[in-house]
Structure formats: C-alpha cells, structure tokens
Write a structure and sequence with these properties.
Blueprint (H helix, E strand, L loop, with lengths): L2 H10 L11 E10 L6 E9 L4 E5 L11 H7 L4 E4 L2 E6 L7 E6 L6 E9 L2 E10 L2 E8 L17 E7 L4 E12 L5 H9 L5 E2 H21 L25
Parallel strand pairs: 6-12
Antiparallel strand pairs: 1-2, 1-11, 2-3, 3-4, 4-5, 5-6, 7-8, 8-9, 9-10, 10-11
Length: about 250
C-alpha cells in the first residue's frame, strides 16, 4: 500500500472538507495474535489528534472501505476512542451483543531499559511492563515525542512502534508512519461516540459478561470431549489479551 492509496482512504471518510488544517499523526500497525489455533494477523491504525486518539482495525484495501455508521455497528473493528486517561471502546466479542464500554487507563509503571534497535529508520529504546496479567516488551522512539502507542499502551516519552508479550501470543509492529498529516480525524468517528454516549457501560460489567460466555464455551468443550480429558484449573482468559484485572 502506498501513501496515495492511504490518503484516498482518509479523504473518503471525511464528511466536510472545511475540517482541513489540523495536523495529526497516523500510524499503521501489523497486529499478530495467537488464540490457541493458527496465528492471525490484521492491520490496525492509530490516528492521534491534538486531544483525541482513535484506534481501529481494518484488513481490506483501504480504498475500498465503506466507512459509515452501519459498517461500524456491524463490524466494530476494535474501535477505540481515547481522550486524556479515559478510553471508550466498541466491543463485539459477545455473540448477538454490541456494547460501548468505558475503561480508565492506569498509570503505566514502565521500566525503561538500555536495549535499542532501529524501526522504520527511527532509533528506538526498549521498555517493559506487566499489564493485566501479561508482561510486555516494547520499543519506543524519542524521535517522535508522542506518548501514544497501539491498543491501550501509552505514557512513554515517545511513540511506541513495537509491542510483544513474553509468551509470544500478541505482537504489534508499526509498518507505516505519517507525521504532521493535515487530514483530520474523521468526524464520523467522533459523531459515533457522541451519538451513543448514553449507552456506555463500565468495563468491569462487560468483562463479567464476557467471562460468563467464556465459561459457557469451556463447559461446552468439556461436554463434547473424550472421556478422561482434563480441563480443570484452566484460566478462561488464557488466550485473551487481558488475563487479570485490578479489581480481581
């Protein structure tokens, strides 16, 4: 994918050309994850504005994207809206249910290390952290002094370009960076969260419902397994990116 194709996508989702002028940073990541089967990968995008950040998944060619409210409601595509330390996420992991959930981002207690490497031509430094049951190694660059990164990661003195957990279940790798873009955050994204803001539920409540669904799946697997198969003491969230929570 070239820059021209990517800009075509961004232009296609902007409803009003008068919004030009604000400069944003756009990062494309390759996200790889392992859920017990074959490893899966997908493209994810981080759009960083002056006081708002959006993060979402989209796998098809960007110039074919039909980006409207119906698409968001049906696909979800891991859409996240971040402002200050508050995150609103559109969740689609439960069958027959879609939900906007609110999650308060913690103060990440990063351990900054001496290891370095080059990513996309930028000098990067290593840091590590334990977050919600997983230990992660990340690489960030002070060459881009933006304290953001993929998914929920933030609060380092530079843009996060690579993240991997130490079990090799999850990995985010920056593949393209667009600095000082004059393309604004698509108004449709902001309007979506504004329209449904009264339907937001706490993240803890959503996780409780998700855990019930995971337990149901676990019991179904046990019931259909061969006699003698052992499934006791299994962490239901073993293949979830968040295994434990601060309220447990």
């Amino acid at each position: 994918m070239n820059i021209k194709t990517f800009y075509f996508f961004l232009l296609s989702v902007i409803c009003n050309a008068s919004f030009f002028g604000q400069q944003n940073t756009i990062v494309e990541y390759n996200y790889q994850f392992f859920d017990g089967g074959e490893p899966t990968s997908e493209k994810q995008y981080l759009i960083i504005g002056r006081d708002k950040t959006f993060y979402f998944t989209y796998n098809a060619t960007l110039d074919s994207l039909k980006f409207n409210e119906d698409f968001i409601l049906k696909k979800g595509f891991n859409l996240k809206f971040i402002s200050n330390n508050s995150l609103i996420e559109y969740k689609t992991s439960l069958p027959q249910k879609r939900a906007l959930v609110s999650d308060s981002l913690p103060n990440f207690n990063w351990k900054i290390l001496n290891d370095t490497k080059i990513i996309l031509g930028y000098n990067c430094q290593k840091a590590s952290i334990v977050f919600r049951g997983r230990k992660y190694d990340v690489y960030f660059t002070k060459d881009i002094p933006i304290d953001k990164g993929p998914w929920k990661f933030n609060s380092l003195p530079g843009l996060i370009l690579e993240v991997s957990d130490q079990n090799k279940f999850f990995k985010f790798e920056a593949t393209k960076i667009f600095l000082n873009s004059k393309i604004p955050i698509p108004p449709l994204l902001e309007d979506f969260f504004e329209k449904y803001k009264n339907n937001i539920i706490p993240y803890k409540r959503f996780i409780e419902e998700e855990n019930k669904y995971l337990l149901y799946l676990h019991e179904m697997i046990k019931a259909n397994s061969a006699p003698g198969a052992i499934y006791d003491n299994i962490n239901l969230r073993e293949y979830c990116i968040e295994k434990t929570f601060e309220w447990n």
